[in-house]
Structure to design on (609 residues):
């Protein structure tokens, strides 16, 4: 695991560097690091002011935000899949992301005086609560019922979000709506980097320490309780932390789908289902994945930009279909 | 190796499981009504009774997984529900019916889950953990299966893995819910012989475990168990030495079928032949 982690960490740093060089203005990796060193107080920037500004003011914060959001969403997915014992669980499919978007948009556009990430967290928690209540009212909570309930909650939250944007934004409201519903990192600057990394630091520690607890959920609640786990408390604490993480990520990027669903499955294929390896590696792979997805979104149709959620859905939706088909074979 | 504190706290003469006046309600309905049951230290008892008598519910409460609404459950003199969770998980193992997972775990990884109550949040497996897993693999005959995927195993093999996981917990009290369900005859006999040997000698060089298993099959109980506890509609109908309790009258009253108690010519244990009520 340590070797894999080191390789992935190197890949993440390389991805961040390369992603900054990509795009209309040609910038070399050496110039990127030179510019970063300059802003951290070491030496002069190798770049003229305008291009240095592109690196430091635009691309670096955007790429760092992508890395943090990817990491946060992937870890959230891994935790949700474990505590709900649902391989289809993910912040997007269970409605947390849409709920968080609604919370964030309400603050931004209706001017509620709450911190943006807090509003997004409240939105995510409410959406999760409604999803689980709805799934429960359909009968015994099963993975498929939970996803169905999540889709209903997600559709409603997205519709209200769109409506709020439509009423309040004058001008290009459709672009705004798309950015929140499909996700976009185009607006990410240093404050967004701050929010995303603060969330990773605050939520990361308790999540990384929950590896053995999540492992104990493998055979269900009774088995976990028999192994000395406080099942209800662990589940709600971890889901709350997940909602916090998702809320913070959505507040800086809109709701980006499928990262939380697909990447933990990919990492399990690589290192097996043990959560002490799965959680940190999912974070690294999620970071790498979203950095490249966003680079694609930014450069493929240059100068026009795709919402990054389109790229993640194009990759993630077929994988989701594959997971569904495999479940059918199992049951 | 650290064992449950219950045995140390209890001292001599107070060993074993001792539940008294246990009430359990589910959604307000009284499922278990004033049940007393004792299982002596180092013996193997069967929990019998028709479907719906409350066997599984009672076991989950005795294991400390669900709470009783009234009554006391002591093991080795200590109140089980008052032990800290991890301490309790080092004292009692519970093998549920047909637990399964979606994860691609190997047999060894599943059994290693049994070490959870001994492990810190982050540290790696200790030498004790590795030894306990190896011992559990050996005593259940699963060593050749150690690196196989749990999900690739048959029902009977999976049941064995769950038993091995419970043994890796290194318990003093072992509770099993229908451990022979869906097993073929040979697997039923070998599973119960293994459980009986655990109650006699424990795993490895340790003293025997106290074992209580819910069983459907009265003949398996008659062949392997020292004592039986018969539940009917949430109350104890009879309890005591197997041969004294499992009589033709009891079977007729509790299960509503005619029974004749014979002797197994090979083992000398009681065998019950059933026929439709006259």
């Amino acid at each position: 695991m340590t070797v894999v982690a080191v390789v992935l960490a190197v890949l993440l740093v390389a991805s961040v560097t390369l992603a900054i060089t990509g795009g209309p203005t040609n910038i070399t990796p050496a110039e990127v690091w030179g510019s970063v060193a300059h802003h951290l107080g070491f030496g002069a920037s190798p770049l003229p002011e305008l291009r240095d500004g592109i690196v430091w003011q635009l691309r670096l914060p955007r790429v760092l935000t992508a890395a943090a959001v990817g990491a946060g969403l992937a870890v959230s997915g891994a935790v949700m899949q474990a505590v709900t014992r649902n391989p289809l669980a993910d912040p997007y499919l269970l409605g947390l992301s849409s709920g968080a978007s609604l919370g964030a948009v309400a603050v931004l556009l209706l001017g509620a005086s709450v911190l943006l990430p807090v509003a997004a967290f409240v939105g995510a928690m409410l959406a999760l609560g409604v999803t689980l209540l709805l799934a429960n009212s359909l009968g015994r909570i099963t993975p498929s019922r939970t996803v169905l309930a999540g889709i209903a909650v997600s559709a409603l939250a997205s519709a209200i979000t769109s409506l709020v944007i439509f009423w309040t934004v004058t001008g290009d409201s459709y672009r705004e709506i798309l950015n929140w519903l499909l996700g976009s990192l185009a607006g990410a600057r240093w404050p967004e980097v701050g929010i995303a990394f603060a969330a990773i630091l605050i939520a990361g520690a308790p999540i990384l320490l929950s590896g053995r607890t999540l492992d104990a959920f493998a055979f269900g609640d009774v088995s976990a309780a028999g192994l000395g786990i406080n099942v209800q408390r662990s589940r709600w604490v971890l889901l709350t932390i997940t909602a916090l993480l998702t809320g913070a990520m959505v507040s800086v990027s809109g709701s980006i789908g499928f990262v939380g669903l697909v990447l933990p499955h990919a990492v399990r294929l690589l290192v097996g289902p043990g959560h002490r390896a799965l959680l940190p590696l999912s974070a690294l792979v999620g970071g790498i994945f979203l950095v490249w997805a966003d680079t694609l979104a930014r450069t493929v149709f240059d100068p026009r930009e795709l919402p990054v959620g389109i790229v993640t859905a194009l990759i993630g939706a077929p994988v989701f279909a594959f997971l569904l088909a495999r479940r059918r074979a199992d049951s | 190796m650290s064992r449950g504190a219950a045995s140390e706290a209890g001292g001599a003469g107070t060993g074993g499981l001792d539940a008294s006046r246990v009430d359990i309600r589910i959604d307000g309905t009284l499922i278990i009504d004033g049940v007393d049951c004792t299982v002596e230290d180092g013996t193997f008892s069967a929990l019998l009774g028709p479907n719906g008598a409350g066997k599984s519910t009672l076991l989950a409460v005795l294991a400390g997984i669900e709470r009783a609404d009234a009554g006391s459950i002591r093991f080795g003199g200590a109140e089980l529900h008052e032990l800290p969770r991890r301490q309790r998980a080092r004292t009692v193992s519970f093998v549920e019916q047909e637990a399964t997972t979606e994860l691609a775990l190997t047999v060894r990884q599943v059994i290693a889950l049994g070490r959870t109550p001994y492990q810190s949040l982050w540290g790696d497996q200790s030498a004790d953990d590795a030894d306990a897993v190896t011992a559990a693999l050996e005593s259940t005959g699963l060593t050749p299966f150690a690196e196989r995927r749990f999900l690739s195993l048959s029902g009977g093999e999976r049941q064995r893995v769950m038993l091995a996981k419970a043994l890796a917990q290194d318990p003093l009290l072992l509770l099993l819910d229908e451990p022979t369900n869906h097993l073929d005859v040979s697997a039923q006999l070998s599973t119960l012989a293994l459980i009986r040997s655990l109650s006699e000698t424990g795993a490895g060089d340790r003293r025997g475990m106290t074992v209580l298993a819910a069983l459907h099959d009265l003949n398996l109980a008659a062949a392997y168990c020292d004592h039986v506890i018969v539940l009917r509609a949430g109350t104890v109908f009879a309890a005591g030495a197997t041969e004294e309790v499992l009589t033709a009258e009891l079977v007729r009253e509790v299960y509503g079928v005619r029974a004749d108690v014979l002797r197994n010519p090979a083992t000398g244990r009681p065998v019950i032949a059933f026929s439709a009520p006259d």
Chain A has a mean pLDDT of 89. The first helix of chain A runs from residue 2 to 21. The interface with chain B takes residues 85, 87, 208-213, 215-216, 218-220, 222-223, 225-230, 268, 272-274, 276, 330 of chain A (CB under 8 Å). The domain at 63-330 of chain A is CATH 1.10.3470.10 (ABC transporter involved in vitamin B12 uptake, BtuC).
